[in-house]
Amino acid sequence: MSTFAFAPEAISTSTSEAVAREVRAGLTATPKTLSPWLFYDEAGSHLFEQITELPEYYLTRTERSIFAAHADEILEEAARGQGPAGKLTLIELGAGTATKTGILLAAAVRQQGSVVYQPVDVSETALAEASDNILNNIPGVTVRCQVTDYTREALPLNRLPNTRTLALYIGSSIGNFTPRAARGVLRNLRAQLLPGDTLLLGTDLVPGKHKTEAALLAAYDDSAGTTAAFNLNVLTRLNRDLGARFETDKFRHKALWNPEASRIEMHLESLPAQRVRIPANSSGSAFAVSFNPSETIHTENSYKFTPGAVEVLLASANFRATRSWRDPQELFAVTLATAL
Ligand code: AVJ
User: Fold this and answer.
1) CA 129 – ligand 1 centroid, Å
2) pLDDT tops 60 at residue 4
């Protein structure tokens, strides 16, 4: 466990060891898996930014539209009720470059004159970009960055005294976790909060009246091939970071909707039978990974929720959902919950 306030060397060492361990465990397992956090090297983070602007990828712009329509209400609701006295401090998990958060921060400044914003992210460069963005565009915000991987480490949130916390966990980031792991992440967060603090959770919704399965699937298999490039980039990353010998043209991006598990799955499908060598590294000796034709590496789950499932998940981590906002097409939900 480690929370480095700006110690890039220590971060990169621990990251490459984590990559080595993760890849050995995932590619020697049956079925083969790789964790989605492996997507986000520099190229992958850039590809993800491009995904958020694709016509098929409705998630980002829909959540932004919900914030744009309801930011004042959301902030008023978060400030209401019992809890620690004082102004709201906004803490964001996995803030990235914080492009949507500005709408909420501007509403917080309107409401209380000023606001402290604490973005937490594993990427120091993303945090630097986030704080530049915010400081240049929204007067009244004080930014305190925290470099922490909240998914792999306990979350010692650097909490300010005499304020109430509104924790932001937006972008459907929670969707990458199995229900059990999602509960773990939220419990970890809850342990850092006081009763009356609040959480704003962004979740993508299951197909419904206005949301077809085809539209959902297209968000993960766009016509420009950006999501395919994002998925395949993980192999390029392993070639670079581990000296692996993946030939990306021998794999194909595959996205599917798994209705039983209520999730989109992304896989990399091996086209021929093939063996890929991974050299020795900090996690152990060299090994080879054998693929049958059409065998896949499961690279991501992206869970989709009903409003009821969001409430149940929150309750399992000792939060009570107080209010939820959706876009008119019911593609996406933003739920405010109180720490009990
Ligand atoms: C960043 C986890 C919210 O699941 O929609 C986008 C990642 N994967 N396209 C999602 C992703 C493929 C994204 N999250």
Assistant:
1) 20
2) no
